[in-house]
Amino acid sequence: MKILKLSILELMRRPKKNMLIASSIVIAVALLTSLSIVSNSANLAIMEIIAKTGHTLTVRPAASSSGANAGGKGQEYKLTTSEVVLGSYIPEAAVPEIMKNYDEAIKAGWEKKGGLVSNPGVPGVVLEPATWAPRLFEKAEVNGQEVIVTGIELRKEYFVRFWWNLTSGQWPADTDIKDVNTNISTQYKLDSHGNVVIDKTSYGVDSSGRIIAEEEKKKDKVAPVKPILKGWDDAYLGGAYAKARGLKLGDRLAINKTEFTVRGILEETNSADDYMVFIPLSTAQSLFRKEGLISLVSVRAMCPNCPVGDAMVELNKNVTGITAVSQLDVAGVQFDFFNMLYKFLLAVVVSTIAVGIFSIFNIVTGSLYARIREIGMLKAIGASRSQLFRIFIYEHFILGLAAGIIGYLLGLGMAYILNTLLDIGAVIRISTDFLPRALILGVVCSLVAIIYPAYKLSKLKITETFRTQWES
Amino acid sequence: MSEFIRTNGLKKIYHVGDQRVEALKGVDLEIAQGDFVVFMGHSGSGKTTLVSTIGGLTRPTEGTVLIEGKNIWKLNDSQLSNFRNRKIGFMFQSFSLLPTLNVLNNVVMPAIFNSNSRKKDTDALKSKAISLLTDLDMKSKVNSFPSELSGGEQRRVAIARALINDPEIILADEPTGELDIRTEKEVIEICCQINNVYKKTLIVVSHSLTWLEKAKTTIVMKDGFIYKDLADPVQAIMNGVCK
Ligand SMILES: Nc1ncnc2c1ncn2[C@@H]1O[C@H](COP(=O)(O)OP(=O)(O)OP(=O)(O)O)[C@@H](O)[C@H]1O
Ligand SMILES: [Mg+2]
User: Would you say residue A405 lies in a domain?
Assistant: First the structure.
């Protein structure tokens, strides 16, 4: 017989009351756990995308309003650079100035922190010029229905959006950058906290920017102006669009009465891209009478922790007529709704805990006073104040621990439900990171409720306990 | 007989709201080792208060309680708990058994709180509990739970519990209250044996006259005072001790 065993037996003696106490702790722990998991998963999702895409910056006309999605689902953060800008344009001639500003800002930002940027960069890594891709958006009549047609330079586009895959068809023969992209994406790995883990050796060897730079030079010699796409009438279709219209490889498309041939169908990426029709930029420019104009430029940073924020600030300051938005900011804006909801729910949880502790406090006080005679007996047979206190503390430690575990498990389940309900679309990651917190919360709630009554009771005079006698 | 328990000018004043209740008004008492004392007296005369002051349960307002020459009310909480644990066996009706524990565990429970007990003592303790329960004719109920026992049987388990740490003093407050005459006789017989065979100093509070026949010393209480060595205590109680 030990004091601990006595506590356990006492705990099991009042299952209903203890379940009541435990349930409010379970609810509080579950709510907090699920919220933490969902928000952590969402943050990780953003970080992962940024790590993979090397953090993309979107440069669009200053006058344009953002976010007109081409029919995708509401909260699409996955590929935020796929936003659509209609009706305002940047001259293609402005791109060199934009890129110059961008590269300088990145370099300055990098050097300012001694090779260390907001997240640690890789000291000694030579910065390569960023890669960029222009887009021209226009609403057009495709086979009699209005659709967003996007003019792209496929090779550049594909390099910025290296996650693109074809479900059918093929890229033009000279689009041979797949391997480079694979290397880049495997370079950036995230640990469970969303920090970028960088394999320095692979970075040094496969510096993707360098390869690109060389290819760019080659390309400049061979075909300085012409788009890489061979056929001027090649069309690539977003996966969702192709599915909806029942279009297949080799089908003919009439875009504003001009005929195109479907050369490839893109795998769906849950972005506006899925609903678009892509044609060569130069074709689009002449078809829509927008020669020399583009709707936006996507810039993909070529370092995992590039100070893209710095570049954004510099661009907005130095280049007139454009707005630069970093992907992180876009993601942030798109997560604002979720963040608000998160804060609201957090407030609910905190007040639940407060009310919970209060009600636990009441139940505990009640149930302890029901044990008053027993406590007197224990004192009489030799239990000291601290030994009595220990009985209560053990009981509630166990209770809190059990409630913490159950609450944690319930929280995992609730995280899935919350994720679906809020349509956050993040992949829920089960990590044990929140388990210690759940357990601590459970135990603390349970102990906070007991400490005062336990203290009072252990100080109770024995005579007072048996004055309330004979009532059993 | 040597002086074993001694109280000097023991006073206890309870404050209930504005009211002041003087439960003990200055009790000077000596009890020798091995004595068998029975306290009698009207309800509210201060018997329970006196006995619990001696047992380290109720702190007196004034005066001292010396046990083997030591003032127990000068001890700190853990020393006093230890004193209760080792020196005193309580048989108070209000100190019932723990319903979650079986008979055996109820009996050995005081050992949980014994700060000196070691793990290897556990077996010795259990066999001691069993032999006590056997003496009390409770061997067959060792694994029963309190709810499965009659009132008399529960009382016997409480007696075994009071004896487990081999205390020198047994304090019993109405140990036969609410028992039928036959069971009362049994319990009284056991208490006599505790006094005669185990050589414990026995202090009993009871309204029942059956105890008087067995007691070595009878003390009558009235209004917070004690009256010792009365020729006819029963008559004294009936008529009122101090006219
Ligand atoms: N904890 C307490 N608070 C206030 N008054 C008390 C307390 N304990 C006892 N008293 C009062 O002190 C007086 C003596 O009480 P005590 O319990 O000692 O009497 P008793 O002789 O044991 O009576 P009974 O035979 O009914 O058990 C009574 O008037 C009682 O009301
Ligand atoms: Mg009494």
Answer: yes
**Pairwise CA distance, residues A67 & A65, whole Å:** 7
Q: Are A248 and A350 in a shared domain?
A: no
Element (H, E) at B218: strand B217-222
Contact residues of B toward A, CB < 8 A: 49, 52, 55, 57-59, 77-78, 81-82, 84-86, 90, 92-96, 98-101, 105, 108-114, 122, 161, 165
For chain A, the average pLDDT equals 74
Residue A189 has a pLDDT of 47
Co-location of A23 and A132 in the same domain: no
Whether residue A303 is found in the same domain as residue A348:
no
Instruction: Find chain B residues with C-beta within 8 A of A387's C-beta.
Output: 81, 113
- Give the per-residue pLDDT at B117: 63
Tens-digit pLDDT profile for residues A123-160:
444 555 677 889 999 999 998 888 999 999 887 887 77
Cα separation, B222 vs B39, whole angstroms: 11
> Which pLDDT belongs to residue A165?
81
Do A390 and A307 share a structural domain?
no
Domain that holds residue A315: 63-118+127-320
| Residues A168, A146 share a domain | yes
Q: How many domains does chain B have?
A: 1
For residue A88, the 8-state DSSP code is -
Nearest ligand 1 atom, CA B15: 4
Q: How far apart are CA A416 and CA A30, in angstroms?
A: 12
Q: Which pLDDT does position A170 carry in this prediction? A: 78
Give ion ligand 2 contacts, CB < 5 A: B 48
Residue B39: predicted pLDDT: 94
Nearest CA in chain A to B126: A1
Answer with the residue of higher pLDDT: B7 or A454: B7
Does the beta carbon of B53 sit less than 6 angstroms from any atom of ligand 1? no
Q: How far is B95 from chain A (nearest CA, A)?
A: 5
- In a domain, residue B69? The reply is yes
Q: What is the ipTM of this complex?
A: 0.89
A385 with B77: Cβ contact below 8 A:
yes
CATH of the domain at B57: 3.40.50.300
The verdict on residue A470 lying in a domain is no
Closest residue CA from atom 7 of ligand 1: B14
Q: What is the pLDDT of residue A123?
A: 44
Residue A55 located in a structural domain: no
Answer whether residue A326 is part of any domain. no
| Strand ranges inside A246-314, DSSP E | 252-255, 258-266, 277-280, 293-294, 296-300
Supply the DSSP string of A15-75, one letter for each residue. HHHHHHHHHHHHHHHHHHHHHHHHHHHHHHHHHHHHHHHT-EEEEEETTPPP---SS--S-
- Among the candidates A320, A354, A384, a domain finishes at A320
Whether residues B100 and A10 touch (CB distance < 8 A) is answered with: yes
Number of domains in chain A: 2
CA-wise closest residue to A57 among A301, A334, A293, A273 = A301
- Token pair of A206 as six digits: 């496969």
| Closest residue of chain A to B82, computed from CA coordinates | A382
Regarding the beta carbon of B56 and ligand 1, being less than 6 Å apart is answered: no
For residue B175, is pLDDT > 70? yes
Residue of A462, A464, A465, A468 for testing the chain B interface, max B β-carbons within 10 Å = A462
Tell me which of B21, B43, B226 to substitute to probe ligand 1's pocket, judged by most ligand atoms within 8 Å of the beta carbon: B21
In this prediction, what percent of chain B has a pLDDT beyond 90? 60
Q: A89 with A200, same domain?
A: yes
List, as one string, the DSSP characters of A115-176.
T--SS---TTPPPPPPEEEEEEEEEEEETTEEEEEEEE-HHHHHHHTTT--EEEE---TT--
How far does residue A63's CA lie from ligand 2's centre (Å)?
93
pLDDT beneath 70, residues of chain A: 1, 46-55, 63-82, 113-129, 172-230, 302-305, 327-339, 422-426, 466-472
CA B173 – ligand 2 centroid, Å:
7
**Choice from A373, A464, A467 to test ligand 1 binding pocket (greatest atom count within 8 A of CB):** A467
Is there a domain that residue B236 lies in? Answer: no
Q: How confident is the model at residue B56 (pLDDT cuts 50, 70, 90)?
A: very high
**Domain-embedded: residue B239:** no
Domain identity same for A25 and A114: no
Range of the domain at B12: 3-229
